[in-house]
């Protein structure tokens, strides 16, 4: 299981690619396969048991508590009458603990900080017990501390529970540090696909973003230092 980051300029097709992977959009050509089957031939409930999706800047109902939000992650497993299964309560507690928000369980989601709220949404996705987690810009609008907090959480979930994480991300240094694989997109096409060292290069950044950058290696990570635009 990998952490895969999709990068590209605004309007390059990053979110469209993520939505296609997540069955929210049907591709005009080709097939998105899940467990060897066309994802659009599978029932939504089946897909939801294999793949969780967090859109950019999700919104919660007014005054919903964190615990109730996380409980929505169990929806694919509820019976016809909407009742929770016997193990749902334990899974919800587990998801709260793994995202370190147990102390927020009975607080309203709209009272949380941006970083706390994002952890609550990730806890909801975690409660789905899927092997794949899709996230659209999970650290947008967060300060640098909470950006690292969320990225380290996703890294830990990947390593501890073998969850494949596929995300759209703008910060190239976060993508380089935390990803096993990076996909660079331009005009809806994949320009580069490979390890951070293969994708985060001066040539790729010039082609995809139109920027000049110096690429360094520090503590085993690739560091990108932009210094101008290509003329």
**Distance between the ends:** 40 Å
Structural class: alpha/beta
Shape: globular
Number of helices: 9
| Beta-strand percentage range | 15-25%
Largest sheet features: 6 strands, mixed
DSSP strand tally? 10
Order of helices and strands: EHEEHEHHHEHEHEEHHEE
For the biggest β-sheet, the strand order reads 4-5-6-1-7-8
Overall pLDDT level:
93
**Residue share in helix:** 25-40%
Radius of gyration: 18 Å
* Poorly predicted sequence stretches spanning 5 or more consecutive residues: none
Structure description:
The protein has 231 residues and is α/β, with parallel strands linked by helices. The protein has a 6-stranded mixed β-sheet, with helices on both faces. A two-stranded antiparallel sheet has the order 2-3. Strands 9-10 form a two-stranded antiparallel sheet. 35% of the residues lie in helices and 23% in strands. Helix 4 (88-98) packs antiparallel against helix 5 (114-127) and helix 5 (114-127) packs parallel to helix 6. Helix 6 links the parallel strand 5 and strand 6. It has helices at 14-21, 44-48, 66-71, 88-98, 114-127, 144-161, 172-178, 196-199, 202-209, and strands at residues 3-7, 33-34, 37-38, 51-54, 132-136, 164-168, 181-186, 189-194, 211-218, 221-229. The model has no long low-confidence stretch (mean pLDDT 93).
What's the topology here?
Blueprint: E1 3-7, H1 14-21, E2 33-34, E3 37-38, H2 44-48, E4 51-54, H3 66-71, H4 88-98, H5 114-127, E5 132-136, H6 144-161, E6 164-168, H7 172-178, E7 181-186, E8 189-194, H8 196-199, H9 202-209, E9 211-218, E10 221-229
Parallel strand pairs: 1-6, 1-7, 4-5, 5-6
Antiparallel strand pairs: 2-3, 7-8, 9-10
């Amino acid at each position: 299981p990998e952490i895969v980051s999709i990068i590209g300029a605004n309007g390059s097709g990053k979110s469209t690619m993520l939505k296609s992977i997540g069955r929210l959009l049907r591709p005009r050509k080709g097939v998105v396969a899940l467990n060897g089957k066309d994802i659009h031939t599978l029932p939504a409930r089946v897909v939801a048991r294999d793949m969780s999706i967090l859109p950019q800047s999700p919104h919660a109902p007014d005054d919903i508590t964190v615990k109730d939000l996380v409980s929505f992650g169990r929806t694919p497993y509820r019976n016809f009458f909407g009742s929770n299964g016997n193990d749902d309560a334990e899974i919800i507690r587990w998801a709260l603990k793994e995202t370190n928000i147990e102390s927020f369980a009975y607080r309203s989601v709209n009272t949380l900080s941006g970083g706390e709220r994002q952890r609550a949404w990730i806890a909801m996705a975690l409660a789905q017990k899927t092997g794949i987690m899709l996230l659209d810009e999970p650290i947008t609008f967060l300060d640098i501390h909470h950006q690292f907090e969320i990225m380290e959480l996703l890294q830990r979930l990947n390593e501890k529970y073998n969850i494949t994480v596929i995300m759209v991300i703008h910060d190239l240094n976060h993508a380089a540090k935390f990803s096993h694989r990076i996909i660079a997109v331009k005009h809806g096409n994949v320009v580069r696909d490979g390890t951070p060292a293969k994708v985060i290069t001066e040539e790729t950044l010039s082609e995809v973003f139109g920027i000049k950058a110096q690429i360094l290696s520090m503590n085993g990570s690739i560091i990108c230092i932009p210094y101008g635009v290509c003329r």
